[in-house]
Amino acid sequence: MSDQKRLFLVDAYALIFRGYYAFIKNPRINSKGEDTSAIMGFMNSLLDVIKRERPDHLAVCFDKGGSADRVEMYEAYKANRDETPEGIKTAVPYIYEILKAMHIPIMVKEGYEADDVIGTLSRQAEKEGYKTYMVTPDKDFAQLVTDNIFMYRPVFGGGYETWGIPEVQKKFEVESPMQVIDFLGMMGDASDNIPGLPGVGEKTAKKFINQFGSMEGLLANTDQLKGKMKEKVEANGELGLLSKKLATIMLDVPVEFNAKDFELDHPDIEKVKEIFQNLEFRRLTDNFLKTFSAEATAPPTETTAQKEAPKATPKTKSSAGAGQFSLFGGDDADTTETVSEYTRKTAETTSHFYQSIAPGMATKLFVNNLLNQSSVCFDTETTGLNPLTAELVGIAFSWEAGKGFYVPFPEEKEQAQELIEVLRPFFENEHIEKIGQNLKYDIKVLAKYNIEVKGKLFDTMLAHYLINPDMRHNMDVLAETYLNYTPISITELIGKKGKNQLSMREVPLDKQTEYAVEDADITLQLKEHFEKELGEANTQKLFDEIEVPLLRVLAAMELEGINLDKAFLNSLSEELNNDIATLEKKIYDAAGEEFNIASPKQLGVILFEKMKLVDKPKKTKTGQYSTSEDVLSYLAKDHEIIQNILDFRGLSKLKSTYVDALPLQVDEVTGHVHTDYMQTVAATGRLSSNNPNLQNIPIRTERGRQVRKAFVPRDEDHTLLAADYSQIELRIIAALSQEETMIEAFKNGEDIHASTASKVFNVPISEVTREQRSNAKTVNFGIIYGVSAFGLSNQTNLSRSESKELIDTYYATYPKLRAYMSEQVDFARDNGYVQTVLGRRRYLKDINSRNAVVRGAAERNAVNAPIQGSAADIIKIAMINIHEKLQASDYKSKMLLQVHDELVFDVYKPELDAMKTLIKTEMENAYKLEVPLDVDLDIGDNWLEAH
């Protein structure tokens, strides 16, 4: 290693923002309600650099007040930037305090950006014989690279890469890093609002650099350009030169590199520990102490950042959920060991014993061993993701960490069934606990082979959902977060999507074994973590008595599916075509011309430029007119064309999403539509429906309601029965708030909306008008969602002042309701979460936000989440109890669908009376509140009739 001294200059805000957004789907909120994501993210990154590189000299550089010179040159410079998130604003003072305690110099100069400070210091240090590493992901810094100045870039998934001159030349296709300035000037930079040359993108900018060498070279040779590009470049030469100036990092900031001041010093350990303790950083404290321990301070033998971190891909079978980028390679850096690609374990670096089991006697001996275990994790490998059509390729088993076995399945169906019969005693043994990740999938696959998975279940995906509902729950994320382990990527086995992707059957057996058994092994290890955390979060009972039993109920419902009348949908599709064509003609007539109604850009021009329906129309960030539903809905009552446009959109979406799509989703074997219910998506505890989504079929419009007519019984011997909880959320809030007036109304069987109208409008209940009842109904349901006077006036014919008066009267009529809402908000502020009647938690990271809008949303969730979540918990209990009764008495009737507060059944007609009694009894007695739960039942030859 060279004896040349090394200086590391950290671009503070780049890493702070990066750290903050790494945790955006799963923010780190401490018990005081502080969002510590940005602090944690930045500190993990800083400590990672120190551990990897042991730099001789280090400084952290900040912006202050923006770039005065650039704003003077171009007033719109960075004017498009969104306001800095509050979580970052509040983090910076803490980061300053930590850096001071660590004796790390903070370099900042009023009126200059960190880019300029780093550029100036790097050049000064180079003159004094230093190698400088600029720690930043920002590509603009590439212009500063020389033989002794490098970019040290954090890369996606963890780790770093170093850009020297060759890397910059390759990345930007330039001869000299200085030409990066010309490149940026030509193509502009949307993030900094640098305009660039109109019509010049990355590809064209590289071509111009190669051909002309610089911005000035391009402008001096525009005669070599052709057509519109020639016109654009010549007309915008001054703009191009200005853009180049804006993109140029300044090298003359009044700061000074003093080598002595920049030496990496030993930190004030106790002071840093005190700050971390205040922020509740337990793991980060351990990471910090390890970083500065005596053993850890030896310098590295090479620059570790030369290696680019590999990228992990989720397993084939995982939970649905939004993706989440992680700066440090894990989603929960403060609840696990220090997680970075630098230290993360893999199958290659971890000792393990994974073995495939040969057919015949070996399999029988293996099953004998399997039956002697008390708890086993298993994982199916299949030919596809659809459990109704997927075939078994193999099953992996593990009951000891680091060890596991794989039973491969033959392709021939009869032989596969013979093998599953050998394994049947394990799956149907009620005394062996079965562990898995997304067990509902495995249960449905095995059901095709006539195998029922019996015994206690432990699903790691469901367990983690209860522990941390806002985080992702797929196995790769959990492994990296809790075990600091990166599992084998499925793309390593079968390749990426496309015609060249292999089937799992085509993967060599040794690779199948490693991949599949690793899944089972890692899931087993995760179970050990989650068992403890379920107890700590007081959610063990919810897991054992609600979510796991429901898993079996949902599997049965999904396997059954529901019958669909395709012929009816085909005729409805034709009717919708006619309706849409009629609306199109009305819209064109009103606009005076034909245009693409589905194009927001064309629509905006018609409505707000040609027809001038609004004096000051709202615009999007890209500058075009906003034609979103909320904007148009506000104008619909005053303009017939807008109501027609909304109707056009509604019918077009109905046709494409349901009427035309549903027939294509009918299973060829069963003839039914099979939705997939997801337990781990909605943080409130509600179920989500997918492929197809049967919970969002519109019911407020006539055409929307007609879609439900397509769902029919399986045959003439059956009828559909719909059971719907009546006003369950209002009943729950009445019970939880102990609001006697409302409780009595429910107990007396009164129409709650008429009762409310009678009280707030001070008229006898017999004299309540339809409009008064309607307004009272809007308030009743709106209160749960924090309706404002403005919102109420938009939903009714009341003015804003009338709406305010109605809300005030409502709260005066139901004082305990308002007190309960305040108590919920206070509880959330103190604890960081609220909970349902069964203890399901909803964490509210923004409840103490200084931003009134953000805080207001969290406060509304503090009131709504326990109500909505309790309703979800109650219907889940009812589903479990009904399912058990149906199985115990061997009914032919089946439970088919759950749509929020409604259950739909396919009832065998001779069982109708018994089913009505069973369903009503179980739903109304699922949970005891001070207010009776009331269930409405109806039957019909289709879902619409039964609803």
Polypeptide structure, described:
The chain has 947 residues and is of the alpha/beta class. Among the domains are: 6-174 and 250-262, Rossmann fold, CATH 3.40.50.1010; 353-561, Ribonuclease H-like superfamily/Ribonuclease H (Nucleotidyltransferase, domain 5); 563-673 and 681-712, Taq DNA Polymerase, Chain T, domain 4, CATH 1.20.1060.10; 740-865, DNA polymerase, domain 1. It is built from 38 helices and 23 strands. Helix 2 (37-53) runs parallel beside helix 15 and helix 8 (179-187) crosses helix 9 (202-212). The model is unreliable at 298-342 (pLDDT under 50).
Helix content: 40-55%
In CATH, the architecture of the domain at 353-561 is 2-Layer Sandwich
Helix count from the secondary structure assignment:
38
Largest sheet: 6 strands, mixed
Strand proportion: 5-15%
Q: What name is given to the CATH topology of the domain at 353-561?
A: Nucleotidyltransferase, domain 5
**Apparent shape:** globular
Question: What are the low-pLDDT stretches, counting only 5+ consecutive residues below 50?
Answer: 298-342
Highest CATH level, the class of the domain at 353-561: Alpha Beta
Measured on Cα atoms, how large is the radius of gyration?
Answer: 32 Å
Considering the protein shown, what is the CATH homologous superfamily of the domain at 353-561?
Ribonuclease H-like superfamily/Ribonuclease H
Mean pLDDT comes to 87
The spatial strand order of the largest sheet comes to 3-2-1-4-5-6
- Derived from helix and strand composition plus strand pairing, the structural class reads alpha/beta
Number of strands: 23
